[in-house]
Design goal:
The complex is a heterodimer. Chain A contains six helices and no strands. Chain A is mainly α. In chain A, helix 3 runs antiparallel to helix 5 and helix 3 packs parallel to helix 6. Chain B is built from nine helices and no strands. The longest helix of chain B is centred in the N-terminal third of the chain and has 22 residues. The chains are: A mainly alpha, B mainly alpha. At the A-B interface, helix 1, helix 2 and helix 3 of A face helix 2, helix 3, helix 6, helix 7 and helix 9 of B.
Chain lengths: 173, 203
Amino acid sequence: MGRWRTHTEEWLSNEQHGQDDAADQAFTQVFAAIPAVEPSAGFVQRAADAAWLARARRRRAMALTSLAASVAAAAGMAAIAYGVASMAGGWLLTAAASSMTASTMSLLMAGATLVEWWWATARAGSAVAGVVIMPQGAAALVAIELVAVAALYTLHRLLRSDVRFRNPGPLCV
Amino acid sequence: MPTSDGDLARQALAGSQAAYRVLVERYASAAVNVASRLIPDRGLAEDLAQEAFVRAFARLKTYDPERRFSAWFFQVLHNVVVDHLRRRRLHTVSLDALQAEGYPGPTTNAAASSPEAELERRTLGAALADALGRIRAEYRDAIVLRYQQDLTVEEIADILQLPEGTVKTHLHRGRKELAAILAAAGWRPSGDTCLETRRRQPP
């Protein structure tokens, strides 16, 4: 009787008698009868190259997504700022001129805060990019931002019409 | 002294393509073998093994060098296979057709054994491989990881995201099912012998 037959009978006997540990040991020998499967020629090179190419693609996608998110965030903020400034109309210009004359330091500090806020938003955009690196995710994010910008611009146009209706004429400074 | 898997992983993360290639080389055969046991289509099994290496490289930051690389990698491979099984139907391709396309057939170590022993091994191997394809998938996963890759119950539990008790149960029941299938095919614990086909005597 060959050794394979012997191992198999030993395993089957142990299973029959409920000797789990012995069956486990014997089956390890039996399982070795299944022939190993070798990878096809060039598998190693293909797999290593595929992994490296995927890494390069991920890095490019992350860079593009980060850029798109930062641009979209900046565009959104600019739209909001433009809308607010236009709604206030000439009053804001007058008030800004007075503030600048009366308190230059306060205006500079406000500007610095605005810049910090803008950079924080850009960093947030980069963080989002770290999460949404798939091209579909980036496209969806940019689309949402563009819709938001379009909505804000439309609102600004509507409000501007309203202000023009109420404002009797140009400001005289 | 060969570089450890952990060191190779660190070098690969630092940007060494050569280091990752060495890792792929070390585990290519095991990956294809495990995938082939879980997916009957040999060509597809190799594609999934390659996908596992790509995914493993993308997640190399999550690899804990305290852990065996093989156990961590087979977890990735298992997830790749499970994802594939969820997405698509399986297409089976005969081994002959694959070999005609250039895929190497099963390896043998014929020089180390007599022709009779080799024949016996092939017969048993074929019967066991066939039986493995017929048992429940969760039992097969545990059986392949335990007996083909020599992973511990703890490592298998980690890979399959199961309690250790469940893994032991799967191993036990998987072996029982295999034993029943082989017994039905004529492989019995004692007494009767059966090599290849058994000629049944007419009553």
